[in-house]
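Something for you to look into today, if you have time. I want to see for myself how the chain folds. Leave the record below and I will have a look.
***
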Amino acid sequence: MTLIFNQQSNQACNGTGRSGSFGAAVGRAALFALRGGAFLIGRIIQAYASRRELNRLLANDDRMLRDIGITRTDIHAALGTSATQDPSLVLANLAYERRDADLLTRQERRERLERSRRDMT
């Protein structure tokens, strides 16, 4: 490894602009990789727990699912995500999209009804 003299701080550095030994850099990289791996494992565990809960929801009948604002198709779509993606977040987004679309449809119907009443008078 070639050391470069840093004129600003008057210390030798390893070519990256940071002072320190190669071993310290490897240690920081290993720590960074361990943190990333632990984060990934945590996401997979969380996604697995969410998948179990969604599978339990499939045991409910369609009326109960409709009461909480989801459909069986939404659950299957959420379960089809990757292993690292939390399916409960996907399911929540699908439920919000459906709710917003229903509200917009109701609002459009209400506006049409009001227009037709005005046109009749």
In short: The first strand starts at residue 4 and ends at 6. The CA atoms of residues 40 and 67 lie 34 Å apart.
